[in-house]
Amino acid sequence: MLAGKRILLIIGGGIAAYKGLDLIRRLRERGASVTPVLTRAATEFVTPLSVSALAGEKVYTDLFDLTDEAEMGHIQLSRVADLVVVAPATADLMAKMAGGHANDLASTLLMATDTPVMIAPAMNVRMWDHPATQRNLATLKFDGVRVVGPNEGDMACGEYGPGRMAEPLEIVAAIKAALTDGPLKDKRVLVTSGPTHEPIDPVRYIANRSSGAQGTAIAESLRDLGAEVIFVTGPATAARPDGVTVVEVETAREMREAVMASLPVDAGVFAAAVADWRVDGAGASKIKKVAGKLPSLSFVENPDILAEVSQLAEGRPQLVVGFAAETDDVVTHATAKRVRKGCDWIVANDVRPETGIMGGSENAVVLISADGAEDWPRMGKRDVARRLAERIAAALL
Ligand code: CTP
């Protein structure tokens, strides 16, 4: 799938630079050619010799290298690729990109290029969470830069949290998705998926039976049609899709924040089973058992993410798709829900326990739009996902 594709790989100066070597190997195994560029800081972490040996190509490091300029000028270098990949993208490189700096070879290439750009950020968790980095990230996304990772986990600096660079194979999957020439190429689509968990106290929570299987399948199908997919998921049991940007959340309010941060998108598919209510005043201490006394919980309403996005005065996605899980009068309820929430389509399904749909591998849906209700035969969740992705592609044409 990557045969003949040309990747301009900019390796930034971070400890994750060593994964850049593996990335080169994985890309070449799949038939891609890799032209490597090292920032000056990157040469402190990996040597140009090992990068060059793995890439089988010359390594570019210096903006003012006369030999390099004579062989291939930096403007030309920025244009030879199908995709420019920055891995690891350090906080500094992201800041340079967001600010439009061009004071070394890497930043100049990024300014001069007319090919799509993907970054795989990697940095200390506090640097990642810093408002400056988050601001730069938002700017880069707005500029159309694709982002893969970072992942959450133990970091080389001894801290824990988001900031670890995505694994080479995850980056390869994202590159494949970015280079796919499908009908959704150049479209950005948001998918919400899974349940939400609403805390009662620090150890207990309210959940629902959504597995996230349908959401994952939809994200994969959209990716396969070439879309850039932002997948915002609650604590689902289904595997996360490869080659998409995964944002993990727990509560409805966190999901709302993640959704708003991912805008603008061309389409939003809201497949998550979001809890309608959360426990009022869920506190920091555990509710203790008191003999003969039952605790009482009071609830407050969660934000309705689908309704909020559907009714945005500015920046509403061109197409907003909601889901309805109903147990009776499916079409009537779902039709009313479409109007009430203000979305374009509702994918309605019957979740009575005897249907085996919730948590199962099949689905029987009715697609409700302004044109009426369309019954789809019972089929696998992957088939539902493929069909829905194709309909979305047709609607965004
Ligand atoms: N949804 C959402 N935010 C919420 C609740 C629901 O974005 N707080 C979205 C779901 O992702 C789904 C759609 O709204 O796409 C329908 O959710 P559902 O729970 O079926 O509908 P409700 O509005 O809760 O209506 P009811 O409880 O009457 O079925």
TrEMBL record:
<feature type="binding site">
    <location>
        <position position="286"/>
    </location>
    <ligand>
        <name>CTP</name>
    </ligand>
</feature>
<feature type="binding site">
    <location>
        <position position="341"/>
    </location>
    <ligand>
        <name>CTP</name>
    </ligand>
</feature>
<feature type="binding site">
    <location>
        <begin position="303"/>
        <end position="306"/>
    </location>
    <ligand>
        <name>CTP</name>
    </ligand>
</feature>
<dbReference type="Pfam" id="PF02441">
    <property type="entry name" value="Flavoprotein"/>
</dbReference>
<keyword id="KW-0288">FMN</keyword>
<keyword id="KW-0210">Decarboxylase</keyword>
<comment type="similarity">
    <text>In the N-terminal section; belongs to the HFCD (homo-oligomeric flavin containing Cys decarboxylase) superfamily.</text>
</comment>
<feature type="binding site">
    <location>
        <position position="337"/>
    </location>
    <ligand>
        <name>CTP</name>
    </ligand>
</feature>
<dbReference type="Pfam" id="PF04127">
    <property type="entry name" value="DFP"/>
</dbReference>
<keyword id="KW-0460">Magnesium</keyword>
<dbReference type="InterPro" id="IPR035929">
    <property type="entry name" value="CoaB-like_sf"/>
</dbReference>
<dbReference type="GO" id="GO:0071513">
    <property type="term" value="C:phosphopantothenoylcysteine decarboxylase complex"/>
</dbReference>
<keyword id="KW-0285">Flavoprotein</keyword>
<dbReference type="GO" id="GO:0015941">
    <property type="term" value="P:pantothenate catabolic process"/>
</dbReference>
<dbReference type="GO" id="GO:0004633">
    <property type="term" value="F:phosphopantothenoylcysteine decarboxylase activity"/>
</dbReference>
<dbReference type="GO" id="GO:0010181">
    <property type="term" value="F:FMN binding"/>
</dbReference>
<dbReference type="InterPro" id="IPR007085">
    <property type="entry name" value="DNA/pantothenate-metab_flavo_C"/>
</dbReference>
<feature type="binding site">
    <location>
        <position position="323"/>
    </location>
    <ligand>
        <name>CTP</name>
    </ligand>
</feature>
<feature type="binding site">
    <location>
        <position position="276"/>
    </location>
    <ligand>
        <name>CTP</name>
    </ligand>
</feature>
<feature type="domain" description="DNA/pantothenate metabolism flavoprotein C-terminal">
    <location>
        <begin position="184"/>
        <end position="394"/>
    </location>
</feature>
<feature type="active site" description="Proton donor">
    <location>
        <position position="157"/>
    </location>
</feature>
<dbReference type="InterPro" id="IPR036551">
    <property type="entry name" value="Flavin_trans-like"/>
</dbReference>
<feature type="domain" description="Flavoprotein">
    <location>
        <begin position="5"/>
        <end position="177"/>
    </location>
</feature>
<dbReference type="InterPro" id="IPR003382">
    <property type="entry name" value="Flavoprotein"/>
</dbReference>
<feature type="region of interest" description="Phosphopantothenoylcysteine decarboxylase">
    <location>
        <begin position="1"/>
        <end position="188"/>
    </location>
</feature>
<keyword id="KW-0511">Multifunctional enzyme</keyword>
<comment type="function">
    <text>Catalyzes two steps in the biosynthesis of coenzyme A. In the first step cysteine is conjugated to 4'-phosphopantothenate to form 4-phosphopantothenoylcysteine, in the latter compound is decarboxylated to form 4'-phosphopantotheine.</text>
</comment>
<protein>
    <recommendedName>
        <fullName>Coenzyme A biosynthesis bifunctional protein CoaBC</fullName>
        <ecNumber>4.1.1.36</ecNumber>
        <ecNumber>6.3.2.5</ecNumber>
    </recommendedName>
</protein>
<dbReference type="GO" id="GO:0015937">
    <property type="term" value="P:coenzyme A biosynthetic process"/>
</dbReference>
<dbReference type="GO" id="GO:0004632">
    <property type="term" value="F:phosphopantothenate--cysteine ligase activity"/>
</dbReference>
<keyword id="KW-0436">Ligase</keyword>
<feature type="region of interest" description="Phosphopantothenate--cysteine ligase">
    <location>
        <begin position="189"/>
        <end position="397"/>
    </location>
</feature>
<comment type="pathway">
    <text>Cofactor biosynthesis; coenzyme A biosynthesis; CoA from (R)-pantothenate: step 2/5.</text>
</comment>
<dbReference type="InterPro" id="IPR005252">
    <property type="entry name" value="CoaBC"/>
</dbReference>
<keyword id="KW-0456">Lyase</keyword>
<comment type="similarity">
    <text>In the C-terminal section; belongs to the PPC synthetase family.</text>
</comment>
<comment type="function">
    <text>Catalyzes two sequential steps in the biosynthesis of coenzyme A. In the first step cysteine is conjugated to 4'-phosphopantothenate to form 4-phosphopantothenoylcysteine. In the second step the latter compound is decarboxylated to form 4'-phosphopantotheine.</text>
</comment>
<comment type="pathway">
    <text>Cofactor biosynthesis; coenzyme A biosynthesis; CoA from (R)-pantothenate: step 3/5.</text>
</comment>
<dbReference type="GO" id="GO:0046872">
    <property type="term" value="F:metal ion binding"/>
</dbReference>
<keyword id="KW-0479">Metal-binding</keyword>
